[in-house]
Inverse folding.
């Protein structure tokens, strides 16, 4: 059969990583490869209770079609509870609900990118965003990071050199994959640059509330005076990813376009799941639940970093995240984390090789480790196994 | 602000119809405009019971990330229960779950269409599909219908005249908006034409199981020997639209591309909602539930057609659907259903003006009426109100 796919679809390939990750699903493998929240923290009993309430109160509406923008009470709660944590004063009108924040990423590419347009992003950046954007056939310009995230002078150079840049994509808090976080002055500067160069920023913020030390950083959008910043949030890491609930905050002009795109994409997100989330947050304090998550993830983070320091060869570097789910490991420049991964699988331990996070390739000497969904004894054992493999190369 | 959107986004406009339909939401309006299933038929109590079972059995998995392809037991049930009704023998491997069948439409455009490519569709066709496709900037070639749906000789002419046609889009059963249904010989012929001209058919089938007289027609895909037909199904009309669950059946080569597209679009559909649907269908007979829906919709259909015959001016024509949710009304050629709608709103009755269903415009003398979600007394009263307005023009 000679099927004539679209050009963009011809470019889509089953990710090599995805195939690799299937190997990590065997029960004997200690996998630091995933990005899953810890399921033992899901509030199962409370959700059961909430569900009964939802069905008794408005069960028929929960099963019927609803507005594309989302369930109104959920939009209000996102604005007043979640976005105020990110130092913003918004109303439900400033928010629409999406089917996870992955959908917000896909919509952003659809909204802003013609074929060949430039996306400016951190180097490295989130694999899932790169994949979603790639379907719209852009070029990626990667901006270097230091320990505090994207370097603003380098961003400004990229903006000057790429007048056809159409959006800046950034994860300012506990970035995926590096775990790095931008300090407040950089956030302010980035918002200024967006206004100066008249370019939208897609601020992807799935991890900001999972801060182990200190309080939640102000969103880049909180420094945005003209409406250039689009903020993407999600309940996947703070509540439950299986419900597929995220959100977009943007200026009215931009948000109304997202609504039309969403109408064509899936009409709306689940009426039922939106009501479960809204009712949960009306009845219980999500911040209290997030405190529990932070305590456990923070401990796992501390343990993993300590173990890497203790067991890894001395020359292996890693980031020191103070929130989120991931740390980023740098090997000696001549080493290939993808090839080493094959040996790791034999030792029943896994990570994600770093090169897939660089949209233009290269940089084979990095890997990403996740600490959120693995009990402490397995973190110790897994890092020891990794160390054993790495020792052969040092 | 001078925001540089993508070309496709510049073409997106808030639908005029959508604004009009907001007027129809006032409680005093009898609206035949929507396409909603009757909420009084939703199995609320059974879903409550099922939810408790799901949460007790695997609550953590129901709240966690799951596979992009969908929850395996649901894929199996779709293959063995729903697709066998459409005369097909499939397994779960042939099916992926989508966030409603609207998502299947959007993905199809993304998978097959470059800017300027031709989509061949019925004239008229489903508004939501036209909108989803339009974001990929195709051209539409409309093929005439008779009372039995798309005319196959006209389809063949369109295929000959448009070598850059990339897909055929069709709703063979109780078409939206006309309510027309293709007989089996046309389905077979359409499958043959797809193979001969090497072009995919997107078979959109939300209403096929809601047949009031006779048994479910074989899907076009059941006549497909080489794998040119993509079948889109949904639980929105037979179970509950609020759960946003649809599916795609296609050959392995095509289906694997849809999976990659879905991964970028929303990672997966709701883990919870998929488990609710699967467990419901393991425990209860969905066919039994569909029988109840058919009985009520069938009665409403009969009543609405009778009322139109009785009260409408004699020259007004309508289709005679034997399933689904919609009938299609044809006015005298010089009349404009959009303008007449303004008067209808004043009389507190509403329909959808037909011109939006023609992707290339024109055809102002049609409108669509829905009979599924309105009790019988309101159908009588609403058709009387419509008749009163129409009488002024005849």
């Amino acid at each position: 059969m000679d099927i004539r796919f679209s050009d963009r679809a011809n470019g889509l390939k089953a990710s090599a990583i995805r195939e690799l990750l299937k190997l990590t699903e065997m029960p004997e493998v200690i996998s630091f490869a995933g990005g899953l929240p810890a399921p033992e923290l899901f509030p199962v009993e409370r959700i059961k209770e909430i569900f009964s309430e939802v069905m008794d109160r408005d069960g028929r509406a929960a099963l019927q079609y609803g507005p594309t923008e989302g369930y109104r009470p959920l939009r209000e709660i996102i604005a007043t509870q979640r976005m105020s944590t990110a130092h913003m004063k918004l109303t439900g009108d400033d928010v629409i609900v999406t089917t996870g924040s992955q959908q917000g990423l896909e919509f952003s590419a659809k909204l802003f990118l013609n074929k060949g347009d430039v996306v400016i992003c951190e180097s490295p950046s989130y694999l899932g965003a790169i994949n979603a954007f790639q379907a719209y056939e852009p070029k990626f310009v990667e901006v270097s990071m230091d320990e505090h995230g994207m370097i603003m002078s380098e961003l400004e150079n990229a903006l000057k050199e790429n007048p056809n840049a159409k959006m800046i994509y950034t994860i300012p808090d506990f970035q995926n994959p590096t775990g790095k976080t931008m300090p407040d002055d950089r956030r302010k500067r980035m918002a200024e640059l967006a206004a100066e160069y008249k370019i939208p920023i897609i601020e992807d913020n799935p991890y900001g509330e999972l801060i182990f030390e200190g309080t939640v950083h102000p969103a880049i959008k909180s420094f945005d005076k003209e409406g250039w910043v689009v903020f993407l949030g999600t309940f996947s890491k703070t509540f439950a990813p299986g419900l597929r609930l995220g959100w977009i905050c943007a200026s009215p002009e931009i948000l109304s376009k997202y609504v039309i795109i969403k109408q064509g994409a899936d009409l709306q997100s689940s009426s039922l799941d939106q009501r479960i989330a809204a009712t949960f947050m009306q009845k219980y304090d999500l911040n209290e639940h997030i405190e529990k998550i932070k305590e456990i993830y923070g401990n796992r983070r501390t343990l993993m970093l300590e173990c890497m320091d203790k067991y890894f060869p001395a020359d292996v570097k890693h980031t020191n995240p103070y929130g989120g789910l991931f740390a980023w490991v740098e090997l000696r420049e001549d080493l290939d984390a993808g090839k080493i991964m094959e040996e790791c699988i034999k030792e029943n331990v896994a990570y994600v090789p770093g090169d897939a996070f660089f949209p233009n390739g290269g940089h084979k000497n990095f890997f990403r480790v996740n600490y959120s969904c693995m009990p402490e004894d397995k973190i110790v054992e897994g890092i020891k196994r990794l160390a054993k493999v790495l020792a052969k190369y040092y």
